Amino acid sequence: MGIPSADWLVRPIGPVDEAEVSAVLAERFGVTGTVHDLGSQQDRNYRVRTETGDYVLKIANPASEPAALRAQCAAVERLSDAMSGLRLPRAHAGVDGEVVQRLGAGGVDLVCRLLDYVPGEPIMDSRYLAPPVVARLGELAGRVVAGLADFAGVEQERPLLWDLRNALTVVETLAPHLPDQERAARVLRASRAAHTLLEPFVDRLPVQVIHGDVTDNNVVCEPAPDGRRMPVGVIDFGDLGLGWTVAELAVTCASVLHHHGAGPASVLPAVHAFHAVRPLANEEVDALWPLVVLRTSVMVVSGQYDTLLDPGNSYASVALDREWAMFEAAVSVPAEVMTAQLRHALGRPSALLLPVAEHTLLPGLPDDVASLDLSVSSEELHTGRWLAPDAETALARAALTAGHAAVRTRHGEFRLTRTTVDDSVPAATCALGVELHLAGPAEIRAPWAGTVTRHGDTGVTLHTGGLDLLLDGVDAEVQPGPVVSGQQLGTVAAHEGVRVLGVQLFRPCATGGRPPRFAPPELAAGWLEVCPDPTRLFLAPDASDVPDAPDAPSSAPDGVPFSTRDAQQAVTEAELLERREHSFATVQEHYFETPPQIERGWRHHLVDTRGRGYLDMLNNVTILGHGHPGLGEAVHRQWQRLNTNSRFHYASVVELSERLTGLLPAELDTVFLVNSGSEAVDLALRLAWAATGRQDVVAVEEAYHGWTYASDAVSTSIADNPNALASRPPWVHTVAAPNSYRGRHRGPQSRRYAPEAAARIRELAVQGRPLAAFVCEPYYGNAGGMALPDGYLRQVYEATRDVGGLCVADEVQVGYGRLGSHFWGFEQQGVVPDIVTVAKAMGNGHPLGAVITRREIADAYRTQGYFFSSAGGSPVSSVVGLTVLDALRDEDLQTNAREIGAHLKDRLLELAERHALIGAVHGSGLYLGVEFVRDRESLEPATEETAAICDRLRELGVIVQPTSDRQCVLKIKPPLCLTRRSADVFADALDDVLTHGW
Prior knowledge:
Helices cover 33% and strands 18% of the residues. Helix 4 (167-174) packs antiparallel against helix 5 and helix 20 (753-766) runs parallel beside helix 21 (792-802). The longest helix has 28 residues, at 282-309. Mean pLDDT is 92; it is low at 545-570.
């Protein structure tokens, strides 16, 4: 059987000799220049470079009618008038005034046009597309169909290959001739199923002239400040014709699906953006995903067909893999699920009816059915218990042992027990059914009449009028075939002494198959619509509610309506963020523009309310890790016993003070306990003022020390306060940031920072402003974890002391073993400060800080009155501080910081060899920074790129944020319990982002 012949089957034309192209340009358009073949699937496109500008000569396939080509030119003119700022390929008339010119090539009569070359780059690769880029594609598609809404310049006399109204015919004609018949069969099945879903709407879908190919490689882009390629123009109007308006969006959505990391939910930004420009009717929403499936099916079969006709057509052959990737993504989720997801995204959930249960599924089930809480906020899943493979079974057995006759799980719950960690892909956490754990035997009866089939050894499915009841764990007593309402189906099977019945409702999809038991968060709303809550089949309706879920609709006479049980967390997240904006001062910013709602932490991982696990590479506050059991138990015990303030006499405040001084040089023998790093630095400065009788302070530029009056005054980072340098009081003086990478002295020349700072300190003394203190982080934290030049503090401390000042080491971020090689940052410099401040890690998230100094300096504060901090040094705070020190010692976390930090830094340095955006890797232990630059010579900060990279890393399950005054450094300060595996997960994720885009 030969390749079929039909009006819409177009044989690609062969290449045209470039000399002939040049002759046509000169003769027909009066243009001379160099030409370059751009390739095409069916036409021939040549870029023409001239002294006055660039053009594209498009030689049309013989199947293209001149009238259609003129219509394309007219459509471009229409859009140019309607869409200012959009780059479009406007046509140039030939010397005879006609935009369509004839030529002969290889004995074939052809026609051509000369179009403006549209500057910018198409998205020809399969790199990652960020949501803003996807949204721009959808917006452009919407603007194009809106601009062409009343365009009537097309007379379509023959069916077109890319008109999705013909999609099934195209697939059925070409699929039998594909070399891979297994793939062909899959495409045929998917296309027929999609067409079946589409049929009810075909007569109601609006038809107009559409571009037909607003896709990733038919737009041109310019790089945005963050390095993302943002579409700014539309090219190639070769598929212009009549079609369903919504088909324009379907084509755009399909083109997103082959990109790195893309899945069906990746198209949602495009749908939102299109809908904002040209609102979608309900029937268009329902038709959209079947059209996406049909579009990808047509692409697969037509691409294979083109390579059969023209084996040398590299343009067509290189596209085969990405066309198959689009198809695979489009059919990875049933179209019914994606339609429900789209409706949910646009605020149009369906109201569907369940048949009324005429009999109880488990008539012998007692009323005291316990409900397991497996959510992220469960009180039964602390201390990492949720990671155990048998966590759900263990909790159910405990409830049965406690005397409950039955225990059930909850439908629609995002289960913490299904969360995975160190995983770039979100786990399927949303429960699409329920499980019943039973203490004794129980019979199962049909809640309504239907037909029974069997699956597996203990599976029974009851099919009833468009709804399937799936039961797993059944000792079946019924044969496959019809059953009546109330007929016994079997009993709950016992397995190793445990009786568990899985119950799931499912609206069968056109492609067949069984639903999964759990859905990923991004598709939960869609899956929950096709898998409604079965709890009411065996319990009273009020038992089916997930806590805090919206109220269910009221019952109706002809059935029980259900709407998509919105993942309640999605609603709650948005509402909670809005409430935060109204009640919580907005200057207290949150990470990320649309932040996940984090409600669980364990060691170096975080979990949001949808059960998405994240690797926490940012949280230097929780040095031991999240949810530390020893710390939680110690606080609980002490809180039950006593919590007051340090003016009372009790043991723990003494023990903590002794432990702190024992970790420091002998002369630092006196401790103040406070509640934060800001308070610690503030107190340190006040001690210096009291001890010296002076006020002038020298601080390092680009540093952050806190938010109290004094600590803010010496904070010079413009990232934290854009007016930091201009608004500091006259008693604050600064010296240059000793940045050996991008400061005024770099590399070996960085040794000059210390003598310059020392000279400045002595100069101030000569000017009559001798210092009270010099304050500095002993490891340059705010710049991204950068070591000070060797000997810097030795020289600066010497100058400070020469003029009678005190040296303050701010260890709030860098101390407590984080550097790995040293417990305190100042040890790395071989100096001993006069005052040390510490917080953050000291309390593992509890508000606790300390100032440690010499006795005579502490006593000097008496001239200012007495000192008191309500929370600092309280019994609970003291126990927290002691427990943290115990855990640091017992778990050998400083050693872990040294070893894992060294491994991670090696991984990051290897990435720097392959990715030019990495300018430097700073730091030691688990205080690291990756600095991004646009150019390694100029060191131009990649500020916007860094923010975008953080967003992409979050999508891959890694939490990290920018730091430094230029906000171009990834601050890497995870809990010190970080494992080698997790360090590799972070490095691999960063490699993925830098390789495939952000």
